[in-house]
Design brief:
Length: 99
């Protein structure tokens, strides 16, 4: 069986590359699904951020400019992390319900 982090990195790189060339809702939806799947399979937030960093560094070659990459990377990472944020908020709401 493939290592979950290696599989995530491969899928992340492919989805991010698509986002760089097609900045549309489908690309952001793929980012969201990556985050949701990561959360479901127990991948840590720190692992996601590390993979994001590695993929962005690889994307530096052949891009028009650093600002373009930075903007695209930020938008993509926000979509990936949306599931983690929703889970955190749900946890906070549930843990505060007994107060």
């Amino acid at each position: 069986m493939t290592d979950p982090l290696a599989r995530l990195r491969q899928n992340y790189a492919a989805a991010f590359a698509r986002h760089l060339f097609h900045r549309d809702e489908a690309a952001l939806s793929a980012a969201y699904e990556l985050g949701r799947h990561s959360l479901e399979t127990g991948v840590s937030l720190l692992d996601v951020v590390q993979i994001h960093h590695e993929v962005v560094i690889e994307a530096l070659t052949g891009l028009e400019g650093p600002q373009e990459l930075a903007d695209a990377a930020a938008t993509f990472l926000v979509e990936v992390l949306a599931s983690f944020e929703m889970a955190r908020r749900a946890f906070q709401d549930n843990s505060g319900a007994g107060d």
